[in-house]
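Milestone 3.1: sequence recovery, worked example.
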């Protein structure tokens, strides 16, 4: 993952110089930002899916513990 925030800061207009005083092609920075956002979205989506699977597994394990407690006569 690139540090797009640092790259964008590095290409921003220096203080008190006015707008569009850039040191790098804006198209390159925006293209990199788009790639970064897409990677972050996929990462978040994958984390959400993984979290859902873990929650399902947790629920299954809780149910199994309840079943075992009933069989053992604890509940």
């Amino acid at each position: 993952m690139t540090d797009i925030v640092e790259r964008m800061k590095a290409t921003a207009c220096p203080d008190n110089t006015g707008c569009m005083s850039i040191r790098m092609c804006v198209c390159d920075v925006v293209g990199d930002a788009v790639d970064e956002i897409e990677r972050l979205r996929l990462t978040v989506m994958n984390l959400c899916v993984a979290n859902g699977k873990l929650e399902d597994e947790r629920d299954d394990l809780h149910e199994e513990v309840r079943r075992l407690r009933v069989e053992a006569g604890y509940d």
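The mean pLDDT is 82. The chain has one domain: 4-72.
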